[in-house]
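Fig. S4 source data, part A: sequence.
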Amino acid sequence: MKPSFKNNCSRIAMVSIMAILFSCGDNYKRSGQEKVPLVYPMGITENFTLTYTEAREQLGSEDSATTRVIAVLKSPLNNDYENLKFPYRTFPKGLLIDFYNEQGDKSIIKADYGIIYSATNVIDLQGNVVIESHDGKKLEAPQLYWDQSSDWIFTQEKFKYTNPEDGTVMDGEGMDFNKDLSFFNAHKTFGLMTIKEEPK
């Protein structure tokens, strides 16, 4: 029995397709997101609480003294990436920080998302960020950075500052200030602002 011309053509076509498929390599040069290696946290903590304390006086290697709580950070979820070359922690479900001055007065910072960069001691706060000082001052912004080393907070975003003590409501864009809102430098401002004169 002689093979038909039609069957020979089908076989040749099938062999050609298989040869093309198996000979093709992946020569595509990847860039952007495809090139970024996957990073997994070394630890995940639910109902995370971290208490920051400081000694009331400088201690030697064998000294003991009382400490005071300067801040308490709480979050429903913490992802720990402290094993990386540039270590950090993320708080994807938001965070609340209670911080205390020398007299024990409590102020708060809250945000929908946060990152603590351990190497630089900077906290990046994002989404509905609110700072409320112990004396009622309130600052709202979509993003703030808190440099813990210098206790200085800054943003380039729009903000709203409210001071019930003197009826100030100030809107602006770009600001840097200390964490208890007793001193601040606003870059651009608009809105109603009342300024108290210091007695001479």
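Fig. S4 source data, part B ends here. The chain has a mean pLDDT of 80.
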